[in-house]
Amino acid sequence: MSRADNRAADELRPVRITRNWLDHAEGSVLVEFGRTRVLCAASLTEGVPRWLKGQGTGWATAEYAMLPRATNTRSPRESVKGKIGGRTHEISRLIGRSLRAVVDTKALGENTLQLDCDVLQADGGTRTAAITGAYVAMADALTTGRERGWIAKRAQPLRDSVAAVSVGIIDGTPVLDLPYEEDSRAETDMNVVMTGSGAFVEVQGTAEGAPFDRAELDTLLDLAAGGCRDLAQLQAAALAETADTAPAGR
Amino acid sequence: MSRADNRAADELRPVRITRNWLDHAEGSVLVEFGRTRVLCAASLTEGVPRWLKGQGTGWATAEYAMLPRATNTRSPRESVKGKIGGRTHEISRLIGRSLRAVVDTKALGENTLQLDCDVLQADGGTRTAAITGAYVAMADALTTGRERGWIAKRAQPLRDSVAAVSVGIIDGTPVLDLPYEEDSRAETDMNVVMTGSGAFVEVQGTAEGAPFDRAELDTLLDLAAGGCRDLAQLQAAALAETADTAPAGR
Amino acid sequence: MSRADNRAADELRPVRITRNWLDHAEGSVLVEFGRTRVLCAASLTEGVPRWLKGQGTGWATAEYAMLPRATNTRSPRESVKGKIGGRTHEISRLIGRSLRAVVDTKALGENTLQLDCDVLQADGGTRTAAITGAYVAMADALTTGRERGWIAKRAQPLRDSVAAVSVGIIDGTPVLDLPYEEDSRAETDMNVVMTGSGAFVEVQGTAEGAPFDRAELDTLLDLAAGGCRDLAQLQAAALAETADTAPAGR
Amino acid sequence: MSRADNRAADELRPVRITRNWLDHAEGSVLVEFGRTRVLCAASLTEGVPRWLKGQGTGWATAEYAMLPRATNTRSPRESVKGKIGGRTHEISRLIGRSLRAVVDTKALGENTLQLDCDVLQADGGTRTAAITGAYVAMADALTTGRERGWIAKRAQPLRDSVAAVSVGIIDGTPVLDLPYEEDSRAETDMNVVMTGSGAFVEVQGTAEGAPFDRAELDTLLDLAAGGCRDLAQLQAAALAETADTAPAGR
Amino acid sequence: MSRADNRAADELRPVRITRNWLDHAEGSVLVEFGRTRVLCAASLTEGVPRWLKGQGTGWATAEYAMLPRATNTRSPRESVKGKIGGRTHEISRLIGRSLRAVVDTKALGENTLQLDCDVLQADGGTRTAAITGAYVAMADALTTGRERGWIAKRAQPLRDSVAAVSVGIIDGTPVLDLPYEEDSRAETDMNVVMTGSGAFVEVQGTAEGAPFDRAELDTLLDLAAGGCRDLAQLQAAALAETADTAPAGR
Amino acid sequence: MSRADNRAADELRPVRITRNWLDHAEGSVLVEFGRTRVLCAASLTEGVPRWLKGQGTGWATAEYAMLPRATNTRSPRESVKGKIGGRTHEISRLIGRSLRAVVDTKALGENTLQLDCDVLQADGGTRTAAITGAYVAMADALTTGRERGWIAKRAQPLRDSVAAVSVGIIDGTPVLDLPYEEDSRAETDMNVVMTGSGAFVEVQGTAEGAPFDRAELDTLLDLAAGGCRDLAQLQAAALAETADTAPAGR
């Protein structure tokens, strides 16, 4: 199988991580996996929801949504329909769990991290791009929190980095980071979330067509591990840029 | 680690599959995994949703819900709150995908299968019990459909059976089929859906505490494969009982 | 008129009251009026809603709902529709009022009783079965409350028992306890709620076809009074069984 | 017991029925039972809901609502809350059933009657005033329908008139047509809907305090029958006024 | 252009302001602009919403709604649809802003004014009639508030009066106070809210057909200013009537 | 009064109009008024809503929304709240009316234009930026429609261009194009929508503090006319760039 964009089976699409894309948010990233474009805004506020008060721990949560014309044909707004669909709920929860896996809520203190991942343009892998970008926005927000004195100087609220990638089997070939056109043809579709140190946070594999066997599963996990490793390096590189050299908010 | 009910790490809880628990539904099962008790009703109706008409294929879908006092403390009804929560959405979608993985919609013809999985009592593993029971209810509904002449005599709408089980790591030990008490302590929680012939339909693993490594993942997959094998046999045994010997609807 | 199940006009369908059908609830009953099957869960919790605090009185309320495939053809879920229908509201309110008629809220103390009546299978008379079963579940929950020390040892929160039955006129003949097939043909339909000592709590009569005259109304009230008397005895008998002899939770 | 307004126990409050209070509606009535004031608008349109088409029968339905400041303290709007309460549902359904009891839907032809009963001011008995006024508005709308040629010249869509009144027991005394102040003190509260020819359409009795016995029930039914007889005469008198002598729409 | 009711281009429709139309509300007005009829109820309560507490200032807000049969053909209820439409929201906000423009919230003290404007019959200009009537109802509610001692004796919570009128261009002619028939034909439609002393509170002009030029805009503003001046006098006259001479609540 | 960014009173903020920011939409623009950043996507589809079919005219409509972290502090999502707020409704309607004012729906043919204006970052003037950007996106979508043969070659669906700007009075000085900081201090706030040929489409002025007089209104209108003239030139310049020279998507 040769890919429409001539990528190797284990190659990511071009990834861009633009920090500080917004002026107001404590941290923000415009993340691009090829034509998929997700705006990740990290809001850090003092205090926690009522049910957590007085326990000395913080809270991190996430919401995912898609603009109506992010997709090839327009989708109606969930606000207009008056209810949130199952897919939106599912992805919001996945992003939240993935981020919490690397947050030390004790070290965060009684502060709340709210990640908003809004898909401006969708071309497959929106949830994995969202997790990957949200981690960087979150890291920036925590830096802001330390500067503002909300988080203790020596506290290390991040235990590790976290990134995510999709893998799938198309015409029998396992491939990494599927755009929409590949995703819609894949027999098996898997999203894998891993820490920077190479451990699994989430593994979600679904047989879209024929069920898959253990050997296929193993190959997909290998492929995903490689992709997450590459993404972890890109995240680290993005965060290494100093405030001066970082791309200005558009 | 010894388990509260003295089970071996790779042992299922007592499983009961009571067919025809309802009088009206085309197929129905009360499935029990220990104290978890799910009522699965399979409704088969002629015709398909508008967007599928005239294509000669059927449709299968599922809805999951929990009675307010299924749990240890009462939860408010989603109908009263006026919206369905993310967890409910997520599980309904999982059940639907799992069942569709073994349904040949061409062979089903233009008929619709609607599976309702209502948790009467919850003690961990409600989604896996639901999938396991729903398969049997679906098989019975398809038999009814054939008797009523909605489905062709020789059509084989079921390509395989499907069952599901949870696995997790508690205090470092991988265990099968977790009741609530274990589930709430597990570091890693995984739900695995497999066909009767041993292929994977869904793999959903989540690090609740520490991320997990590849070796742990492999052990959990082995454990789950064994559990699904046992469940497939219990499903087959339940379906082998003739109408005469089958437990009457309560 | 002869009835499909050969019952006498003033005869109840077979009634079964299975206590402790659930493991978690403070009181629970699976009540059956023929093929109508309602699961009644009584949740007793310490404390009262904010607007009642500090007045030394408790609160009792009820919610009624029907599983989608309780009926002959599947009904959409109210949680999915996002709103509760008028019929559900009306019956929930009726059950709540009926139970409160026999509860001494002063003796209950600042505790809340929440009755959930979920129809697992519907064949007419679901609201009357719900009231009849909910009373028994409530009685068990109050015993639990006394054992836990939430309710004073000598307090008598129940002033009386309460039960309900439907009556109707079919082809000119007044009959007791109508299954769905009769209910849908009845010219007049009445639900009567009475205390164990024979007083009326609710009388709700509706002319479905022709309006009814006073003589017909009188006959229906007599019939209902007899049915409620029988139900009160069945309730008392069910509650008389000791914990040891009571049917174990399924 | 002497009543605040010196009425006899079996005496109605001053009743006013003002026809044609609105300019647009096919029929409209401002009905007053003392200080209770309900605007009843009858909309008649050609055609029926989809599920009734081609059967040659019409449809009649009703909606009840209360303005936020109809009551002594302001109630939030149901449109703002986004859901309709149980009480509103219950009363809307009662009004609809009551009107349908006197409508011959065959004679109505494939036309739809929609009754809107909006409480402008509430002082007890809003549902009974609504039924009483809605009947007159409906009669006027049917006349309009005949004039417009939607209803056949000789068709008699009304089989009878219908009116409703409340009765209750206060301090042991049965009384007719309770204003709010009495209603809130009543031990037993009953709403009775009757045809002009004296048959029962609905009987809804509720023990608010102590349950009531058969003798009390009988007394209340007698009282209600007298009240409905008086209301039927007032309805007939209002409808007897010619278009010329009828009060102009305000 | 000659108008259907022979009014001059700068002439208001007959305006009636009936105070105390309701018995419960602190202030209430039935306002009529021709056949447009709006019931304005002013509820004054002690206390303010939580976010305003302790600042010594009051709050005024408004809600607008239309009865389903206020219009020529029946509109579905927003409570039944479960959501409030954009038009309703927009007008409610306009009324609230208009009233707040003349309220001195410091002088009001920590009290809340809630204006409910319900359109009983619509014939164009419902929002302008609502503002005009609501001002008078509000003035009465403030008098009630002073009598009850909620508002200080010498406090002057009203800085000015406020009234509103519509203007538009029909067939090239600018006209004042458009009924529905004119409104639906107007090329330009403008609503103007002014204080009694002649200053602008709101100017909302919309080109329905062709855009309008500055000269047209100027003419419309002149026309509106005249109309608001007339309305201010009618408001003052209505408020000048003593309690004795004021029309009794219907 | 000197402005924080040293602008003259009649000077716009830096305006950027980036065409084709999205790959899927028929037309799309990222429009910036200073730090206000709105993504405008124009979806053109064949066909019209049912109620317009067969009349040979098209339809144009708009939806406005704000990302949760567009603002200085995070706002909850309307999709999560389950209802759309009044402000959102109001602005969506304003944008729709403004665009329809320059669209010749006959020339558009039976096609539908849906404009989505999503505020990515808010700093005052989001509705005016949305209208200004949406016009350009709409123009591009119409070109696409002509290329695809949906719109007749010679049809001129656009009668004129349209742009909008805010004006206000701060500390007595009328100023153009207010950022949030100025907007929140303004006594009077006005949004003006004008065609490229200088006619008014909408004028919406609101007294936030003191009511304003005619002279102030005149000055504000002059200021707005100048701003809209400048914006019309910027729109024309943006549209004049050829596909080759136009900034690529991002």
From TrEMBL, chains A, B, C, D, E, F:
tRNA-binding in keyword set: yes
Pfam families on file: RNase_PH (PF01138), RNase_PH_C (PF03725)
UniProt catalytic activity: tRNA(n+1) + phosphate = tRNA(n) + a ribonucleoside 5'-diphosphate
UniProt-listed Enzyme Commission number(s): 2.7.7.56
InterPro entries: ExoRNase_PH_dom1, ExoRNase_PH_dom2, ExoRNase_PH_dom2_sf, PNPase/RNase_PH_dom_sf, Ribosomal_Su5_D2-typ_SF, RNase_PH, RNase_PH_bac-type, RNase_PH_CS
GO biological process: rRNA 3'-end processing; rRNA catabolic process; tRNA processing
Subunit comment: Homohexameric ring arranged as a trimer of dimers.
Classification via CDD domains: RNase_PH_bact
Assigned protein family: Belongs to the RNase PH family.
UniProt entry keywords in alphabetical sequence: Nucleotidyltransferase, RNA-binding, rRNA processing, Transferase, tRNA processing, tRNA-binding
Biological role stated in the UniProt entry: Phosphorolytic 3'-5' exoribonuclease that plays an important role in tRNA 3'-end maturation. Removes nucleotide residues following the 3'-CCA terminus of tRNAs; can also add nucleotides to the ends of RNA molecules by using nucleoside diphosphates as substrates, but this may not be physiologically important. Probably plays a role in initiation of 16S rRNA degradation (leading to ribosome degradation) during starvation.
Protein name: Ribonuclease PH
Residues that bind phosphate: R87, G125, T126, R127
Gene transcribed to yield this protein: rph
Domain Exoribonuclease phosphorolytic residue range list: 11-141, 161-225
PANTHER family (UniProt xref): EXOSOME COMPLEX COMPONENT, EXOSOME COMPLEX COMPONENT RRP41
